[in-house]
Amino acid sequence: MFELIKNHNSLNTLDSLFSNVFTHSYSDYYLSHDDDLYHLELALPGLNKKDINLSVNDNYLFLSYEPKKDDKHNMWSGNCFNKRIRLPRSIKKDSISAKLKNGILSISIEKADRLDNNTSIEIK
User: Could you tell me the pTM of the whole model?
Assistant: First the structure.
């Protein structure tokens, strides 16, 4: 017979992700870390950095996109999305950097002792 095993872990928090395993992948983003930084990568094919909104509030990273009404010919930009990712408490808010290259949004977050409350992030 098969045994049902319940899994009660909170995979949305980076704290729990980085406590046991070096790298995690999900259907829509990859998480990893080293001694100094947390790294987050998201696939955003066909999107322009000007169209992506990225910010931090409290201990959440917010990512959103809404296509322009006149952009009907781009098959990748047809749907809007909003994503919220819980951040660990130990980050330096002012050190967050983001870069969009070849459809991959790479976000680096420096580790620290506490989280600042609110900031916007420029995508390079």
Answer: 0.64
